[in-house]
Protein: Transcription factor FapR
Amino acid sequence: MRETLEENPFMTDEDLADQFSVSIQTIRLDRLELAIPELRERIKGVAKKQLDDVKALSPEEVIGEIIDLQLDERAISILDVRIEHVFARTGIARGHHLFAQANSLAVAIINDELALTQKATIRFTRQVQAGERVIAKASVKGTEKERTTVEVKSYVDKELVFSGEFIMFRTNERETKRRETE
Amino acid sequence: MRETLEENPFMTDEDLADQFSVSIQTIRLDRLELAIPELRERIKGVAKKQLDDVKALSPEEVIGEIIDLQLDERAISILDVRIEHVFARTGIARGHHLFAQANSLAVAIINDELALTQKATIRFTRQVQAGERVIAKASVKGTEKERTTVEVKSYVDKELVFSGEFIMFRTNERETKRRETE
Structure:
């Protein structure tokens, strides 16, 4: 189990139970015995390492929790929708929170000191309720001069709840970086 | 001066000084004498009345302060950008705050109990710094079936800093309303 988790730290107890054809209870007991933390804690360990890579904003400025980050390639974050994120009357998550999660991920993915959103086209495709966990997946679609296009798709379970295309302006500070590493 | 302000409660002391060809100092003294509150306080009085009209969300859920609202026509809100709205490294306002101001105004303008953002195309046209005041102006461009298009333009002084087109989904609850007023 330790090896399996080293390869894929994001496996849930359920996934592990499936893989080893045992019950979830067995997996939990084995984890306790081997002192392997639960998924949430494992993710945090990975996330801490990933966050050190973020360049364009301070890690604590990211809305949601980054669990995967390959600069200028892809990034994933999770946001647990709580009561303070929803409209009082309807219990539906307010759009700007889903936007903030996606937008800050689009900033975090940029491998430059400065990244600013220039334009965004976004769609809210399914209502999100308090208690649901939104997983945002960002990927870089291309860079032309100082403009990088980042696509973000956010899911609850496997259902698409939000999608957006972000055009990010970035400063080309490669010169500065080169000097720093010399 | 009292008459002038009744017609247009949003005039600044500077506007009044211009209109009456006197110094700003004179206007201030006159205001004190006539017990006319300053612009900010006058706006709050108007805003309180306007807010009672908001239907699709609770007034305290609006990001920024609504100072004008004609349901299904136009709305204006102001947001004072503070240190908690900006990126620590650059001092530039984070996009999701400008988005939240515009989006909640697009919700507030809808004359229905339920208004949800379906799609938005937004542009950030100039960086905003802490200490600046953003004035967002929303106007309804049209309604087709249950979709209303709202255009929002946000300014600092007279410079456009943000623009967005929001496609809002609304429930047609006119039946319910009719019953309530009978």
